[in-house]
């Protein structure tokens, strides 16, 4: 399988493959190691999730996007946030919290009835969960910070996403969690914001996220996959991997794009059938 | 009472008072007519609302703002939207609707259970209501248009506010409703957005609006008044009106600001006591 | 026919119809006067254009939008620009010019070969034309000003649209041309920009405009209608007018929205058939 | 003299001249009345200022811009603010105030030493002055409101400009002052901002304004004229008026732009000489 | 002491601690090495500054933020700029410069009287200084570049902050200085900007910075600490460190957040007392 | 030669030179290795290009900027895009493509006549080429992705620039191409955009790029060099290198900036002449 290499050799800065290495790998059908589910998560996942998350670690985001789009979800990619760890892939399940601008009366009522929802959500997080905070783009105040994140990590959580800001950013960077946000901030939740809703549909960077959605994050954004179609779209994406490997193989041999992409020419389709047989 | 004149003589374009007119009015204690509750609303309001709304027609927005702020609500003014009718004051009660980016699965479930919420909210609107649409700033699609507005008008509604866009803008302008929005748009709700929540707290231009809040709009924005404190803050604002009238009276006679504002000097406080007696 | 009234009584500021007037008109089937093709244009138009433009003066923008959208053009409404005359409807044909940031070498070559394209486009404008300037949102420099506009007016032009700025704004306001822009500016084209292409497809506020497109502008934006479908969509929009008139008629009598919109109930469809017969 | 008509007939909404009226005026060399210095200002101005301001009321902004630009000041037009009264021309002299985000220690020190600078600046304003507030684009808090404005008006002030927000907007609209701002706001200066500097150079909408600069405002922005060159540039602008009148005269007769603008052809230059003689 | 690890092992890319390492360290009370004052600075600092800066190297930014906020400075964190070296902590003292849009007359006067202020400020910089440039967000022109930075470095300077742009960005990155800016730029100061004020209060990313303020920068922004309270807030932050270490210790053992944060439960407070004794 | 070190030791994260190292290098006239033309490009370049590109690898961007600016091109630096590989210098030749918002009729016509232009441009790319995509800032849809990039790489291409978004970002990062963009995106070209023009002048981040321009990119942006002046400006930049080396040499010895920069004092000019002799 032929995939993104910079994500594999974790901790390595920009590793620029020389062209010869690409050609060599294409010739040798090298299978570089894949991104992995973080160790503190993998051990806690249910067998089903471990298999599902594992498959998502083996495909490219754009292949899954194509399948999700084809299912009737064209607006499923969040690209307005920054990934704190650009070389980490994130695969997890959305647990959502909604924030609003602070207001004394509503805040008093809500906080009398329940803990602040950043605390509650990390306390209740299940293995593989991603906390997702709707904050309306507010960055003058953080939605949460390192304590919540530590509890989330201990419970097997995968990451945190905010349409807003987090605090304690260097500590968040040191933890084995992926983080997406608009900016960092030192100021806490109060007195700018308050948490109001838990496990409701939320708006993140122009995309709706529903509790239970599967989130697939790369450095350029987060793909939101409705839970009901995730099995189907992962299978389709896995099927795409082999064809794209063949297409790159041809391109790296110097053949013309026109016969290869977006569709294989008739002649190349035959070569592809042979290629697949040879690999079996 | 000494107030904003441009809002009184409805339909008049920018009417610029010459200084002599100001001085003359100050001298004569002229009471120009006040902004009025629109006729199609006034007849339908409950007696309590007619009195409350009527008081709000007699005070300046900033006086009420000061009282709301003093009650512990510093973030209560929405100034990111445009008033379609800059010379119309709006006083009404919030009825809220929350929109999210469209998503096939959630939309199907919601629309099977209930009419679209723009229709529902206008159908259920009470006299004096303002429909308030959270749309996350989205202006590539309108939240609603003239049909909803017509039904709202017939039911005694006062206006519509969107953190987004309305369509049929020239028709909305022709109706006796005040409108606040980011931009206009020709495109309908679908396929960009969907309505998801009704009568929940919403985010409008960085301010939280709760169903039942009293909204007080001028050309520069909307003051959000929690229902529980509205009686109190209106009384305080009415008390402010008389003092400000006296302060302007002194200023128009050419006296120095320093003895008048923000606090009356000792000498001027005595004159004010006499002024109030004389007026009785 | 029942339409936007504020656009009819030109020069009138915000004319707020009392509800009784709406009901009265609905009852009486009043036909208020329609927006008119400006006199300096009407006399110069070809008979075909006079008929086409005249029809567009009799329908609502959203009705035409629906027909254009249904033809496969969902992204056809420009809502990022400001109309200088919010109560003027604009109907005209696009004549396009493309600007780029200034560059000495290209400018020298282009301006040696042809007059600046703002001059050329107004000189060559045909009756009913709208000059459309792609300027990439640049507002530190105007694309053109009153002299070009005067020549355009004399030739029977209808308006000017810029994804950028115009200068001489008070003079433009005084002329019988509609103007759409991001902002005004005093600075001329040079040394910030230059005109590079004439009568090519351009990008205006996120929408593609092609030379010959029909532009239909209201205060909230400009609908872009491909020339090939304009006859068809106008006919569809005219058919919509009558049904919407009936729908408003019912709403103004206080009937429930649910039986009227977006679709007439079975019972109301029958009443509509009778209504249409009665009107003939 | 042939000039902007919408600014003349004050209070008139969008008055759209029919082409025939333009041609008629051009033929008759009609001199429509000019914009006037407001009455409460004119009576207080020094004779020199009355003459200077009067001349600026007789020229187009772009003509003065050209002269200021030619003197070496290319960045002299502020177009990021909104004029509260789009049909009012503003001519006045800058009196500047600089605001910064609030900070307890500095605020305590400054306010112990001097009144807040919005009060001080209006108290010290001279006839013809414009208060100019640098606020860094901050609109969550107003820089000042109607009391300051009333004192400014009484002292013969002309207007107020803020790279930020004013409060009491409907009252400001009712006064004979021109106002430029980003948005309106109900919240006062504190606790968001504080005034820190008086009569220093400031940044307004990307342009530097120096105390004593002459400000020339139209609906699309404010031209900043260094005091030392104002006499010179006004004379140049007055000279431009006559030539542009002749150019429009030719254009309205239907002649080609190419022989008229930007430069008169040789033949037209001769006609211009005769035209000037005939007018004497 | 338990702190951010990514900042310690300088030059290391994203080093993601496995959960086991966190737990191990918590158990062993490991004290990883702290961020250090750069060598070219440390040797030149006064003993007092070396002690103060050294303490700030031992605490988390958010702990200091809490203490500064509690002293009455809620708006003290700049989060709109980008740190060129995200894994470098910056501790230094503000030396401020204010820029305005270029203007020929003022520039001539200022530059005749003094060197450009970017040169002057680096020439006069004291060990531990940070140059802070107010540029109003302007990024079409840099405020300064590598030569100024080299002189600053030689004099023991710590970094440079601009609400605007720097040039020579790769060279700045290679120097042992921290840099905060909006963007980089190749163009020099002139002809877009000019330096006008030195050692005055400035606006940076919505926060006021006063000469002599202590700046504490991390990858997510800069905390501005008034000089008069810095000793006090640092002591408070140091006291926070021990309690947070204990709180993380409990969390890493899997205990519930609710008994730990934001306040320790009664039972945990007792354990904390024992923990502190054990550590002594 | 004394230059940026972080760009040399590729793959190294932030390498912070201690001051002593700087001084040592200045004393020893160390010549650190320079950035290199990527291997897959160098072998394919014409001898002339290899020499030209090689020279550009030996100078600082700002030195070339100064020479381009002096030739009359002040607006030649693009700083609104993000470099995917901040430590990679890009030198190449522009091959341009223009995109517009999608439109069914035009798309059908264009795509019937020619392949999509992202395919065509990579298929026709020459060694040393950079694909440059005008997309008007649109980031809801990518202009192209990894397949195009692979073909470009095989043909000896150097990089891709979009005033918009690319997809397959981790794969692009793994390839030996430099990438500039606004954001990443998973969604493909259709149905948001379409390619319309090939090898025409385009607008990128406020700068005009013409086919054949030489692009010189660093982490902070891209310098656009007109092909006709590239030889001249490179020679000027090479001449600057030696003088700046001497200036840094003096600064690192602790001498005052005032005698060194921007101009050498008379005494230092004499030392410079000796320095140059000594080096020969």
Sequence-ordered SSE layout with sheet pairings:
The structure is a homohexamer.
Chain A: H1 19-28, H2 39-42, H3 47-56, H4 61-70, E1 77-78, E2 82-83, E3 90-101, H5 104-113, H6 117-124, E4 129-134, H7 146-154, E5 159-162, E6 165-166, H8 169-174, E7 178-181, E8 183-184, E9 193-198, E10 202-204, E11 207-209, E12 214-218, E13 221-225, H9 230-252, H10 266-279
Parallel strand pairs in A: 3-4, 4-5, 5-7, 6-8
Antiparallel strand pairs in A: 1-13, 2-7, 3-9, 3-12, 10-11, 12-13
Helix pairs in contact in A: 1-9, 4-9, 6-7
Instruction: Figure out the total of helices of chain A.
Output: 10
Radius of gyration of chain A: 21 Å
**Beta-strand percentage of chain A?**
15-25%
The chain-level structural class of chain A is alpha/beta
Largest sheet of chain A: 9 strands, mixed
List low-confidence stretches of chain A: 1-16
What is the mean predicted local confidence, pLDDT of chain A? 90
Q: Helix content range of the residues of chain A, please? A: 25-40%
List the secondary-structure elements of chain A in sequence, H or E. Answer: HHHHEEEHHEHEEHEEEEEEEHH
Distance between the termini of chain A: 13 Å
Walk me through what this model shows.
- 6 copies of one chain form a homohexamer.
- Chain A has helices at 19-28, 39-42, 47-56, 61-70, 104-113, 117-124, 146-154, 169-174, 230-252, 266-279, and strands spanning 77-78, 82-83, 90-101, 129-134, 159-162, 165-166, 178-181, 183-184, 193-198, 202-204, 207-209, 214-218, 221-225.
- With 280 residues, chain A is of the alpha/beta class.
- In chain A, the strands form 3 sheets. In chain A, strands 1, 2, 3, 4, 5, 7, 9, 12 and 13 form a 9-stranded mixed beta sheet that branches. In chain A, strands 6-8 form a two-stranded parallel sheet. A two-stranded antiparallel sheet of chain A has the order 10-11.
- In chain A, a hairpin with a 2-residue loop joins strand 10 and strand 11.
- Chain A is elongated.
- The two termini of chain A are 13 Å apart.
- Mean pLDDT of chain A is 90; it is low at 1-16.
- The interface between D and E is medium-sized, with 24 and 24 residues.
